[in-house]
């Protein structure tokens, strides 16, 4: 399908993102860009959600979790969420990250736990995955305190967060950790070797090949790290017994090739997969809910999946 005309118009007004190896400069530019896009192109986010912050210990430090609780009486299903940002940026405190958590908390009637995993290059692979698994274990161990149903834990993320969610699901299976009811992978980076990247979409669509290559430089300490299944879940030799997956990709996204292949491999391993490609859309389309019908459909698809996997849809019927 041709590029969505609204996306084409938007791209004509936004300069190509500057790629820098300076992490502080990168994060400042990214935060300004993403918060500006959300302010201009996202629908207002709900406010009637209770949010608290906790700090939990992890290897060599600690991380922050933001916990979003719906106004209805619990216990509720739990959704552990990982923000995007190319492993080098992003934060649980970005406006659109906070707003998306609020939308899903209220829309799906679930407790959302947003994970403040630590970033590269200060923290190399597999730090983010270890942080993510520590968050999953902490939530599972504190389910009663959080008023979360322990048998209705779900996980998900966007872009690099989708990578972390998929890797944590693999890690939890391999470590016989908490059972997950669903994994939600949105425009996920599932192949950090770059072998499945669709290079025809690597320039001019906001997420660039140059940025992907900088991620590789910042994230990995050694040349073989990208080939670990916890860095590139698409390379795992065994994908059996993983949680059901909702995988959402954008047609004009450098990363779609990895999503295509991962969905195929999960199905071949007997994992239930709902794989959808948003036609005419780009990597950043999902946050543009006031501008794009496709973004609103995307949001509603995720909320419906969270309801369905957790059983809240049946309970409400």
TrEMBL record:
Its EC number is 3.1.1.1. InterPro entries: AB_hydrolase_3, AB_hydrolase_fold, GDXG_lipolytic_enzyme. Residues 80-284 form the Alpha/beta hydrolase fold-3 domain. One of its GO terms (molecular function) is carboxylesterase activity. Keywords: Hydrolase. This is Carboxylesterase NlhH. The lineage of its organism: Bacteria, Bacillati, Actinomycetota, Actinomycetes, Micrococcales.
């Amino acid at each position: 399908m041709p590029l969505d005309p609204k996306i084409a118009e938007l791209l004509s007004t936004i300069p190509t993102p500057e790629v820098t190896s300076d992490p502080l400069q990168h994060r400042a530019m990214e935060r300004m860009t993403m918060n500006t896009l959300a302010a201009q192109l996202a629908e207002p986010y709900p406010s009637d959600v209770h949010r608290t912050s906790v700090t939990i210990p992890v290897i060599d430090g600690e991380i922050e979790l933001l916990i979003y609780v719906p106004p209805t009486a619990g216990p509720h299903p739990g959704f552990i969420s990982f923000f995007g940002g190319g492993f080098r940026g992003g934060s649980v405190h970005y406006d659109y990250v906070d707003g998306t958590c609020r939308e899903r908390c209220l829309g799906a009637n679930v407790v959302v736990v947003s994970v403040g995993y630590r970033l590269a290059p200060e923290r190399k692979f597999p730090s983010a995955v270890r942080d993510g698994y520590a968050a999953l274990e902490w939530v599972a161990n504190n389910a009663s305190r959080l008023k979360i149903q322990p048998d209705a834990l779900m996980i998900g993320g966007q872009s690099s967060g989708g990578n972390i969610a998929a890797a944590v699901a693999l890690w939890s299976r391999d470590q016989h950790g908490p059972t997950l009811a669903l994994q939600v992978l949105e425009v996920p980076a599932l192949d950090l070797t770059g072998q499945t990247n669709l290079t025809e979409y690597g320039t001019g669509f906001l997420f660039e090949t140059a940025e992907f290559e900088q991620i590789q430089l910042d994230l990995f300490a050694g040349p073989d790290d990208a080939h670990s299944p916890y860095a590139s879940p698409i390379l795992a030799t065994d994908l059996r017994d993983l949680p059901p997956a909702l995988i959402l990709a954008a047609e004009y996204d450098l990363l779609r090739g990895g999503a295509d292949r991962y969905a195929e491999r999960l199905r071949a391993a007997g994992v239930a997969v709902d794989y959808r490609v948003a036609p005419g859309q780009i990597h950043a389309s999902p946050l543009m809910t006031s501008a794009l019908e496709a973004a609103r459909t995307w949001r509603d698809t995720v909320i419906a999946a969270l309801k369905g996997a957790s059983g809240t849809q049946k309970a409400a019927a």
